[in-house]
Amino acid sequence: MDMFEQIREHEQVVFCNDEATGLKAIIAIHSTRLGPALGGCRMYPYKTVDDALEDVLRLSKGMTYKCAAADVDFGGGKAVIIGDPTKDKSPELFRAFGQFVESIQGRFYTGTDMGTDPEDFVHALKETNCIVGVDEVYGGSGDSSVPTAQGVIFGLQATSKALWDTDDLSGKSYSIQGLGKVGYKVAEYLLENGADLYVTDINQKAIDQIVQKAKEMGAGIKVVNSDEIYSQPADIFIPCAMGGIINDDTIPQLQVKAVVGSANNQLKEERHGHILQEKGILYAPDYIVNAGGLIQVADELYSPNKERVLKKTKAIYNSLLNIYRQAESEGITTVEAANKFCENRIEARTRRNSFFSHMKRPKWAVRM
Ligand code: NAD
Q1: In angstroms, rounded to a whole number, what is the distance separating the alpha carbons of residues 274 and 334?
Q2: What's the pTM value of the predicted model, to 2 decimals?
Q3: Ligand 1 pocket at CB < 6 A
Q4: pLDDT tens digits, 74-91
Q5: Angle between helices 292-299 and 49-70 (to 10 degrees)
């Protein structure tokens, strides 16, 4: 396929090759219409360069929508490093990656994603200021799963408002898939607020921890196997593990009234949004609900402030309610409504934000 045809929706794609460190990376900038591109850097042993390119193009486009929805002054970008994160990492490889990011001169900001962790970017930070999400001791904002979990809770409250006209999450039951950094925090909050839980995780330690917590509080909890979580008679299903879990096999099992979780790309295909709608299950688009972490790293460029991040994350509540209303009034799916909302916002703000980012960029380049 003609390469320019393949990247026609994107502004810029940079292939990064450093023989000395073995770095092979691709940086894709989908859009800078709302500001410099922002997106994590994934490390994965892609079988072919085409697979890596396809992934980075898809993920960077998703970031444009996610940034618009979260109302941060950034566009969409993403990077992928082709390699095995358990074998191929070195400080020098991430410094080389940092040099490539620096060479793009402030058009792309990045940090951790699948296969990379904040420590990797401490090395990249030696070469460029365009790094977000490192620990607080290095001037970053620290653990982004805290605002992500808060965003899921605001998403649950908005969904409860839409379904039962109340923000109160107590007295209802929730099935949670994945009790990791995000899922555990959400589960803990729900237990503390009088909810009953069905939980699953492939990690026994995570299960033991939440069961112990429920015991201390005298709260109701039922542990089920991984493949049983979809059929539990809960009110809301909260996916906090992997993507693609709303599909032809799982939808017929669902008994819940809504799906609201942090996992990325929950719908295996967009048509599954239509099937959920036909089944009367309200779906909270994942990129709206899980934006808390993005809001935190974007906010870093004004210097970290947890109160401000919480205030911005609260906006997820109203955004989601508006998307539910728009979907209902136009007879479209919630995913279609969310995409439309983002496209309208990008269109409306393009000229405003380019003016704003030119004013701000020199200041952002200085990390305090
Ligand atoms: P995590 O790795 O800390 O937790 C994931 C948990 O899911 C782990 O405990 C793991 O054992 C469990 N798990 C994996 N496969 C499973 C299976 N088949 N059945 C049941 N449990 C399974 O990840 P996290 O940071 O909590 O993120 C959870 C999801 O939210 C991911 O999809 C992530 O991409 C997404 N997300 C996270 C953030 C963030 O700030 N951490 C932001 C946006 C989106």
Answers
A1: 9
A2: 0.90
A3: 144-145, 148, 177-183, 200-203, 206, 226, 240-242, 262-264, 290, 293
A4: 999 999 999 999 999 999
A5: 80
